[in-house]
Each structure stands twice: as structure tokens, then as C-alpha cells.
Amino acid sequence: MTYEDQLSHRRLDVYRVSIQLAVAADRLCRGLPPGNGRIKDQLRRASQAVPLLVAEGAHRSSWPQKRQRYNEARGEAGEVAAAAELTQALGLGDGSEVVELAARVAAMLTRLIRR
After folding, report:
1. What CATH number has the domain bearing residue 17?
2. DSSP 8-state class, residue 93
3. How many domains are contained in the chain?
């Protein structure tokens, strides 16, 4: 068994989509005008936390520990969606792709948690 075979998070579709979410959120942040450091920081932090929590959960040995990390990741996805919606409401950028990906990740995590 190779080291890569041991990386169980790579087998999760939600992990791959959460990486797409982090990339889309970073792209949105890069397009925001100067003077919006707080929303940029919040959006980047929350979007990067999602795949990290998913990976951490995948590597936990007990189901309660896995579920806790997946729940935390779902909460972060909600925060990402809210931050992207806020950028749209303030007329700072188009966060629609980020909102769509965050909703998809949240739905995938909900199904994973209910398994």
C-alpha cells in the first residue's frame, strides 16, 4: 500500500468539490476592490477550512469524531456562502459561483453525515 492509498480523503467527492470551492472563493477575493480586507480574510479562511476539515474527518477513526469534523465543515461552507452573498449585496463582486459550490458542498456533507 502506498502512502497515497492511505489518504482516504482523496476518495471523497466532497473533498474534491471543496477544493473547487476554495479556489473559486480565492478567485472572488482577488477580484474584490481594495479596502475589503475583512471580508477577503473571512472568505479565504472559511473556504480553506472546508477541505481541511473534510480531510481531517476522513482520517479520524471513530464515527462521532468524523461526524463532528464534517459538521464543522458544513458550518464553514455556510459561512462561505454568506460571505459570497454579502459581497454581491454590497456590489463588490459576483459571488454566485461560490454560493453554488458552497451549497453543493453543504448538501454533500449533509448526506455524508446522515450515512
Report:
1. 1.20.1440.60
2. -
3. 1
SS (H, E, C) 2-39: CCHHHCHHHHCHHHHHHHHHHHHHHHHHHHCCCCCHHH
Percent of the chain with pLDDT over 90: 89
Note down the domain range covering 66: 4-114
Residue 99: Cβ within 10 Å count? 20
Q: What is the pLDDT of residue 2?
A: 52
- Number of Cβ within 10 Å of residue 96's Cβ equals 13
d(CA 93, CA 64): 38
Task: Report the half-sphere exposure of 112 (CA within 13 A, side-chain side).
Answer: 26
The string of pLDDT tens digits covering residues 1-46 is 455 556 688 889 999 999 999 999 999 999 999 999 999 999 999 9
- Mean pLDDT for 61-88 is 96
Asked whether 32 and 39 are in contact (CB, 8 A), the reply is yes
